[in-house]
Amino acid sequence: MPARAFSTVRLVNGSTGDPVLYLDYPGADNALLFDGGENHALTTQQLADLEAVFVTHHHVDHFIGLDRIIRANIDRDKTLHVYGPVHTIRRVSDRVRSYEYPFFPFQKLAIAIHELDAGTRRTTVLACGKRFEPGPVLEEKWTGRVCYETDSLCVEAVPVDHTVPCLAFALAEKPGYHPDPDRLAAGTLRPGGWVAEALRLLRANADPSTELDIQGGRFRLAALADAYFAHSPGARVTYITDTLFTDALRPQLVKLAKGAWRLYCDSFYARKEAKSAAQHRHMMAHQAAELAKAAKVEQLVLIHFSQRYAGRYEVLLDEAREVFPRVTAEL
What is the CATH number of the domain that holds 49? Predict the structure, then answer.
């Protein structure tokens, strides 16, 4: 199993609340959020660390937390990226611009909104310095699965089959050096900006004798690599919710989840509710397990349980475990 670089991976509301997945990396303000539903369990600081938000669709339980995300970042000098399916530009713009702001000069937040639609990506920027007036929309071809990329990871997106336009996502860490969260937690140096700088140098194959000034001392890159970083093929986390599991969609979802360390997957219904699953375009627990088995994932986490199973969620877990044993849920 590949080493994982993220220090935090948290299903914010468990398997029974709004599906929201938060991942954070040590030493930098570069957290990622999958879905924008209810997020009061996250602190303002955690939301202010966000670099990108990936919205599957615009139903209220996946989108209602956007206001709190914007409020947590309003005083930051940064670009916050928001990705979502068709209509994301209009919906995010409408939400942001529905409020009055004081617009102080120190407020430098820019919101880059990216709308993914059948081979096309549309992007616009709402800048606080321009009173969030909509900028021009740039339209470009989007021929691959990757919608977001940094030096150390990428995020892939594929359309799924829900009652409204909807996406599924996977985070894939790139091979190479990654911060080791356990070593950082146990080490004498506090995580900070030096982590990102050391990572940049390591990935650029810089001279191992290069020295960095950190917290009052000088440290060689080679020593930092040994003490705080790991070299690995990287881990994969897949997030799939609100979709019907069809023969046509199955190959795409298997590819998206292939070899994932953890698959967070829609498990709204039990087998006997197949008619409701088809009507409302949701997966059943045993289908999530079939996907996990076909994709050979390390662990399946069932999410988005229907409240009709309150007090008896084991029904969903049992049906999944009949197909794939490495199943859990956060109840």
Answer: 3.60.15.10
The bridge status of strand 211-214 relative to strand 217-220 is: antiparallel
- The answer to whether 270 and 284 are in contact (CB under 8 A) is yes
Distance CA 43, CA 48 (A): 9
Q: Rounded distance, CA 329 to CA 268, Å?
A: 12
> Model confidence at 188, in pLDDT bands (50, 70, 90)?
very high
CA angle 96, 100, 105 (to 5 degrees): 95
Nearby residues of 156 by Cβ (< 8 Å), 6 or more positions away: 145, 146, 147, 169, 170, 172, 256
Predicted TM-score (pTM) of this structure:
0.91
Question: CA 157 to CA 118: how far, in whole Å?
Answer: 11
Mean pLDDT of 124-133: 95
What phi, psi does 257 have (nearest 5°)?
A: -95, 0
Where in the sequence is the domain holding 75, given as residue range(s)? 8-174+234-328
Per-residue confidence at 60, pLDDT binned at 50, 70, 90?
very high
Q: In the structure, what pLDDT confidence band is assigned to residue 4 with cuts at 50, 70 and 90?
A: low
Using alpha carbons only, give the angle 44, 50, 53 rounded to the nearest 5 degrees: 115
Coil, helix or strand at residue 305 = coil
Task: Kindly report, residue by residue over 77-128, the tens digit of the pLDDT.
Answer: 999 999 999 999 999 999 999 999 999 989 999 999 999 998 999 999 999 9
Q: Write the burial class of residue 141 (CB in 10 Å: 0-12 exposed, 13-18 middle, 19+ buried).
A: exposed
Number of domains in the chain: 2
- Residue 192, helix vs strand vs coil: coil
User: 223 with 250, same domain?
Assistant: no
In sequence order, what DSSP letters do the residues of 207-271 get, joined into one string?
-TT-EEEETTEEEEHHHHHHHHEEEES--EEEEE-S----TTTHHHHHHHHTT-SEEEEE--B-G
